[in-house]
Amino acid sequence: MAGIEAHWYQRNWRHLILLPASWLFGALVALRRTLYRCRLLHSFKLPVTVAIIGNISVGGTGKTPLTLKLAQQLTHAGHHPVIISRGFGGNKAQQAVTPESTAEQVGDEPKLMAQRNICPVWVGRDRVATAQAAIQAHPLCDVILCDDGLQHYRLQRDMEIVVIDGVRRFGNSYLLPAGPLREPVSRLASVDAVVINGGKTDPGQYSMQLSGDIFYNLTDPEKTATALDFKKLRVHAIAGIGHPQRYFDHLATLGLTVTPHAFPDHHPYTSGELIYQDCDALLLTEKDAVKCAAFADDKYWVLRVDALIEPALTDQLLRKIAIHGR
């Protein structure tokens, strides 16, 4: 974490300089939401259930693993979800995402989700138009899962799910740019579900954990390994996600000692910057792996993680779908 973001998880005199900008940002956020609530700004209602999986802070909180888990459980329940995303890091064009799509075209997270092959994935700058195109392409679709987009009020929603990093929480609790918040903490009172990723929950909140202990080789995905296979090797690990330390901590819980390398979220990797002379194995997140496949060698290993969530969260979403279908 570098630059201004390094100060978002502490409080010191520097924030006094940025607080007026944060107050202005908060006023604009409140005004914009009020304009949509009063219908002075137009929003669109889709013919299917829309569930937003988002957050009120900048940076990764675990939205993508949760979105995939909900998609999987909805599919098992007989529904036909479609995931939509803005496609951060892609070319912003409205398009269906396939396993053959590149991260440069669609963004790293949508490509990751498409590779899981759970349900259709679409991306586009205009989420309303993207959802409409996805529904037209998939007539059986009965629920849209919007990965991110809590603040995209043009798209009406039936359920709002907010994911919170259980370790970092709200940082210093200031709005941008003095802190990491896109909206004030009070916004949580109006959402349908609050999910805590890897931390203590308060009454009424849902817990979530990321689980994974199997690595697959990036050049040969059929080849797998466990942490024990790396015990006697010189191991490096990279993470270009919202909270890199979470990944490194997870590797430590598996009993691994690694040399960590943190990169900015959505970092566009090149082969030259990942050459480490004392490296027998390089461990990656799935999100990073989609951007490294083109130049990877047999040292590249990927840890697959899945979200473990309370069944009550899925049950709440299923009730929303049932109500919408009446």
Order of helices and strands: HEHEEHHEHEEEEEEEHEEHEEH
The number of strands is: 15
State the separation between the terminal residues, measured CA to CA: 48 Å
Structural class: alpha/beta
Helix content: 25-40%
Number of domains: 2
Q: Uncertain segments of ≥5 residues (pLDDT<50)?
A: none
Q: What would you say the CATH architecture of the largest domain is?
A: 3-Layer(aba) Sandwich
Overview of the structural elements:
Pathway: Glycolipid biosynthesis; lipid IV(A) biosynthesis; lipid IV(A) from (3R)-3-hydroxytetradecanoyl-[acyl-carrier-protein] and UDP-N-acetyl-alpha-D-glucosamine: step 6/6. Belongs to the LpxK family. The chain crosses the membrane at residues 12-31. Keywords: ATP-binding, Kinase, Lipid A biosynthesis, Lipid biosynthesis, Lipid metabolism, Membrane, Nucleotide-binding, Transferase, Transmembrane, Transmembrane helix. Transfers the gamma-phosphate of ATP to the 4'-position of a tetraacyldisaccharide 1-phosphate intermediate (termed DS-1-P) to form tetraacyldisaccharide 1,4'-bis-phosphate (lipid IVA). A nine-stranded mixed β-sheet has the order 3-4-2-5-1-6-7-8-15, with helices on both faces. It has eight helices and 15 strands. With 326 residues, the chain is α/β, with parallel strands linked by helices. It has helices spanning 14-37, 63-76, 103-106, 108-116, 127-137, 244-253, 286-289, 311-324, and strands spanning 49-54, 81-85, 95-97, 121-123, 143-147, 159-165, 193-197, 206-211, 215-217, 224-225, 235-239, 259-262, 281-285, 300-303, 306-309. It is globular, with a radius of gyration of 20 Å. The mean pLDDT is 93. It has two domains: 3-209 and 308-324, 3-Layer(aba) Sandwich (Rossmann fold), CATH 3.40.50; 213-304.
